[in-house]
Amino acid sequence: MKTKKFSALGVIFLSIALLLSACGGNTNNNGGNAPAPDNESAGGEKINAVYFVNSTLGDKSFFDSAEAGMQKAVKELGIKAKTVEGGTNQADWAASLESLVSSGSYNVVVVGTSQMKDITIDLAERYPDVKFIFFDDVIDGVPNIYSMLYSQSEGSFLVGAFGALVTTSTELKGANPDKVIGFVGGMDIPIINDFKSGYEQGAQYVDKDVKVVASYVGDFSNAPKGKELTMAQINSQKADIVFNVASAAGLGTLEGANEKGVYSIGVDGNQNPLYPGSVLTSMLKNVDQSIFRAFELMQKGELKLGTSEVLGMKEGGVGLSKDELYEKHVPQAIKDKMVEIEDKLSKGEITVKSSL
Amino acid sequence: MVWQTIWGQIVDLSLVAVLLRLMTPILLASLGGLISDIGGVINIGLEGLMLMSAFTSIAVGSSTGNWAVGVLAGVATSVLISYGMGFFSLKMKVDIIITGFAVNIFGSGFTIFLMSKIYGMTGNYSPTGAPRIPVVNIPFIEDIPVLGKLLSGHSLMVWIALLSVAFCMFLIYRTPYGVHLRSVGEAPYAAQSLGIPAKRIQYSALAWSGAFAGLAGAFMSNGLTNMFVKDMTAGTGFLALAVVLLGNRNPIGILLGSLIFGLASALATIVQTVPNSPIPSQFIQMIPYVVTIAALVFFALRNKRRLATMP
């Protein structure tokens, strides 16, 4: 009985599918050079994407930003998309992602962060028909993976220049005459030092005399220590603006700067509203825009699968967060100068060296 | 350059302020560890207790607008979980070490769970304008140049921690309860045969450790910072256990141990901020631990020599 029903359903679906494909063929033939419908990629198949979150949504930063990009692509590009949360147990991720891929319901998989790199490469090699869009790390040479990395050195260059403008500013009350700006990193590791290198280059670009003092928390969660290091930079080195690159521990940095009446720069997401007037701007990784861009390119058939791209200022991969608080608290002279520097970065007139 | 900076900080006494801030959570947590250790039920769940208390105190503190209520709620939560530990280890006979581990894992996961359920955030919770443990400015003394900076302007919790040392001295060595506690820790069955309620004493020892760990946790989220960040204790509870041994299982020793560790941490903080320092940051971050190990070796050698010279 049951099997009969199923086979009947199967027949119906098959005939519908046949009919539809026939229709599609017809319109194309009749219309001659009619544009392909929106939701078809160049390969002729519909994009049916799944975004695998290797954590949970609600971080107000990275993963939520990617989700926003997916939603935007659904709305504006007409793709089909689903989001699956993998939870915080790292051991489950590989199995969950594989069950998504092997189900055959999706032809595009969006996944990110370096923790997922090996899992993704393994799956991509075993399921060559599925396309992967991978963000926040580099995967080269796998023919069905497109990966993108955000140029933290260019983003940090921007905020470094911003910091140098703030510390030399005479309009800002919290800025002192000492040309010292601070940097609080999570750990002394290559990615974090890439931020630092860009930050230093940006500061030097504005003023050769600006000194950068850098401290490392040693992990990404010890907020009290992040705060203590920031206070030490402010008290003993007279830093008047501090760049937080320590994730959750960096929240202590923002709080310390706020308490001391000086300034700070947020990271990854827009942290300006945390301490209005003290967090002057944040360095953004525009995950949402980059994912939207990848889908857009895929529809046009221009996505270079098998390669990786570093998204800088030009591609909109990184940038400053300019919300109403930025408008309100940052002096006009600095804003103008930042627009100029952004412009030069996107045109390639300034090149930032990455330390990676 | 490095020495100049450090010397400058010593002269203007801001090193003392940093030292006291860094020392307080370790001191409080290790006093808690001490009492449980003396009672023979070493509480290695300090880290988890601190996290639970840190979360509860900031959550309750910010919703009631009163820091004292927040701190009390944090301590109460921590004590309650300690009683739970007692139930499992003393009544259900689960190994105390395993119970402690369970509390650590539970504390880390459950605080994130609560944070996401109550506030919809998974990484951190930083309420704006939450009340915090007040700073004690002593009138008259605060105007005296050196003494003012030395004694005034510290968080109330710093004083509570220092008073707790005296309190523990009194509790352990000057009260009948303390004598019972020590005897239960040395030989529970012998104590029981003399009519000392060993189980009840051990329950209370765990409760004390919960109370002190609770104070330490509340200070981290409500005094040092004004936020809760997942896993924000970052190993302080385990350091506290090391300080219990470093302090030779007595309150004064623990105060000294915490001071040594706090001083090393404060120095590391200052040294790190020196621009273009030639010393790799990893080495600087090692300082507190290296100093602690060195102190441990020093005390161990001294003890050994003292034992050797005894008749």
TrEMBL record, chain A:
Coiled coil: none annotated. Pfam families: Bmp. It comes from Paenibacillus mendelii. Residues 1-22 form the signal peptide. It is found in: Cell membrane. It is a lipid-anchor. Residues 47-338 form the ABC transporter substrate-binding protein PnrA-like domain. Belongs to the BMP lipoprotein family. Keywords: Cell membrane, Lipoprotein, Membrane, Signal. InterPro entries: BMP_lipoprotein, Peripla_BP_I, PnrA-like. This is BMP family protein.
UniProtKB/TrEMBL annotation, chain B:
The chain crosses the membrane at residues 6-29, 41-61, 67-90, 97-119, 156-173, 227-246, 253-271, 283-301. Coiled coil: none annotated. The keyword Transmembrane applies. It is a multi-pass membrane protein. It holds the Pfam family BPD_transp_2. CDD domains: TM_PBP1_transp_TpRbsC_like (cd06580). This is ABC transporter permease. Keywords: Cell membrane, Membrane, Transmembrane, Transmembrane helix. It is found in: Cell membrane.
